[in-house]
Amino acid sequence: MTNYQLTRRDFIKLMGMGAGTLTLSACGLLPPASRFADPTTAPVILTPLASVPVSLTVDLTAGSATLPIFSGAETSIWRYQSSVREGSAESVQMLSNSYLGPIFRVKKSQRVQVRLKNELPDPTIIHWHGLLIPEEMDGHPRYAIAPGASFEYDFQVTNRAGMYWFHPHPHQLTGPQVYYGLAGLFIVSDEEEAALGLPAGEYDLPLVIQDRTFDSQNQMVYLTNGMMEQMVGFLGDTILVNGAPNAALDVKASAYRLRLLNGSNSRIYKLAWQDGTPLTVIATDGGLLEAPVTRDYITLAPGERVELWADFSGRTGSEMRLVSLPFSGFSSSGGMISGGSTSLFNGAPLDILSLNIGEKGVDVSPLPTRLSAIARHRVEEAVNQNNPRSFALTMQGMTHAINGRVFEMDAVAQDEIAQLGDLEVWEFVNLEGSGTGMMTMNIEMPHPMHIHGVQFQVLGREITQGYESAYQELSAGFIDDGWKDTVLVMPGEKVQVLVRFENYAGTFLYHCHNLEHEDAGMMRNYKIES
Ligand code: C2O
Ligand code: CU
Ligand code: CU
Fold first, then answer.
1. pLDDT per residue over 37-71, tens digit each?
2. 431 falls in which pLDDT band (50, 70, 90)?
3. CATH of 379-529, one of 2.60.120.10, 2.60.40.420, 3.30.590.10, 2.40.110.10
4. Whose CA is nearest to atom 3 of ligand 1?
5. Is the pLDDT of residue 348 over 80?
6. 319 vs 333: CA distance, rounded Å
7. Which ligand has the shortest distance to the CA of 131?
8. Domain ranges of the chain
9. Residue 266 Cα, ligand 1 centroid: separation in angstroms?
């Protein structure tokens, strides 16, 4: 068994790795014909890409820069510089003074071309998280390009309206590349959404939540605390929103659409308004819910998105604070912690963002009670209704594994092959803590599981006896009603999802979105066969 666990020294070696032989260029391809097992589902008609006019062509260059994040020394970061070659300049918004970005704003069915240029010292590739695009466009690590090389993306956006995102995905380097700054948003709008009249323009605020640790020279520090930190996942002591520490925003007394992404490497947030006002959720990973839901707090794991509708009217002069409430979790040195003040554990109470509410803004139109139509997958239609495809999340030596396996670049096991068009039940079973073997340590960790190439629906959750108390600290914050591409699987938990492989045949990834887990090998290929 290959062990992808890296020592600190290996990691440094890897970071200094020179040019490889990874240069590949994208080939134009026609989507394969779909096969539909279920006649009740309207087939997705895939238009040949060549017949769709290109409406946006963008250059994205991944490279290094410095930014004034704190007073004093500037911080060295990695970022994407963008320039629009063709199409409307408003479609690609740079975030001034942030390592994050850009923010794409596109319409469903637009054809987008992106030319990625790698000016990093390491291989890289972009993955479009949540987008339904062919394998060759999806940023599998096998498409990573060497320093100096370029990659041409060309795809049509077929997703419904929602906030998707993009980030690097090179083998064993996703964690550091995201950490040092590389990530942006991909916001899709469509007609169904436009008809709702949701807050727009300056009232539509994308907010990316991340944690970082800075040294006394204002430089980002990543994985310096040994093996245990890598097994648990990186936790920073400083919270940043859109790349800014101590984030505060001036808003108007009106309604806002707050689009939240947990862009952290491994930290989970238990988000709430500090004054106890319930949160109104209107969307998840794959876009709008059917109807708004109200929660006292929201659990947001790495990779997940949630959108809030927040009405600040009548609150002129006051402040609303978004916080992360405390919960029991792991410290980066591996100990279980439930309390204490250090932010170096997953579960520490944290300030996320303050919103200072100023003068009255536009009149608030009431939030529609019905937001969208979601075609519900029916478990009876799954080809494996009584025999879910099961993925055990367990320890393999010192590495988190999936069904006892870690990532291999080209390998697809027999039980990792699905048929195009099929609806399947997948289940993730997190029983690491019950593992026996060489490890005497009782590692119990949450794993946000992500599947590329699809959006899925959560079918159900089940918690093993004995695990209920930590579970119940977070479970009321899961938003399972809509489309998802990432789902948090708590220690002792089994989560079942319904997923239809309806878009493209090809080899895609599924993995834990704790980026240290992913880089250490908690990732596998699966293949959709036509
Ligand atoms: Cu956002 Cu494979 O990841
Ligand atoms: Cu993804
Ligand atoms: Cu994990």
1. 333 344 455 678 888 999 999 999 999 999 999 99
2. confident
3. 2.60.40.420
4. 129
5. yes
6. 36
7. 2
8. 5-194, 201-360, 379-529
9. 13
